[in-house]
Amino acid sequence: MTDALDWTWQYDGVILLTGLLCAVAASLPGNFLVLRRTSLLGDAVSHAVLPGIAAAFLLTHSRTGAVLFVGAVLAGLLTAVLTELIRDIGSVDEGASTGVVFTTLFAAGLVLIVQAADAVDLDPGCVLYGALEDSPLQTVRLFGTEIPRVALTLAGVLLLNLLFVFLFFKELLISSFDPGLATTGGVQCAAGALSADDC
């Protein structure tokens, strides 16, 4: 019974490290989304990238990170453009247009994933929810220690987010708490938000 509860760095520790890196990297920009009351945007973009990932896989038949990342970025940009387009053309609230776009793209992504899953060993559950427990399976040797490849990627994302917040902290802070003052002061808020109303 105690063998099942033994904690090891090489398996449990790296899973914990990977989850921690992901949580901290996401919380940095996430705090500003919450302050701006646009936290649905983060949820929308994270769900709406699914069809981009699925389409990239179906077109290239490759599960490498770079290919899937390009598909995800393109789908994320499409989400932002469609949300703004629906908001402007339909004269609806940004939350409503975001909800319409992200549910539609997420559903399209699910259909594409199921289509792809029939041809290869692609588990829709792993694509949707991730598989953090599988992170120790693909490692690289760094300073004499085996580290999951995804942990290195997340460390890079964390460093980029830290750099972004460090460089633009004043602009992020003022645009989050006082959009009117930010606009008066020359801070281009609309570049960081989908709507000029949010900043």
UniProtKB/TrEMBL annotation:
Protein topology in the membrane: Multi-pass membrane protein
InterPro entries documented for this protein: ABC_BtuC-like, ABC_TroCD
Stored Pfam families: ABC-3
Keywords, sorted A to Z: Cell membrane, Membrane, Transmembrane, Transmembrane helix, Transport
Predominant location category: membrane
Subcellular location field: Cell membrane
Membrane-spanning parts: 14-33, 66-86, 98-117, 150-169
GO cellular component: ATP-binding cassette (ABC) transporter complex
UniProt GO BP: response to zinc ion; transmembrane transport
Family, similarity comment: Belongs to the ABC-3 integral membrane protein family.
Protein name: Manganese ABC transporter permease
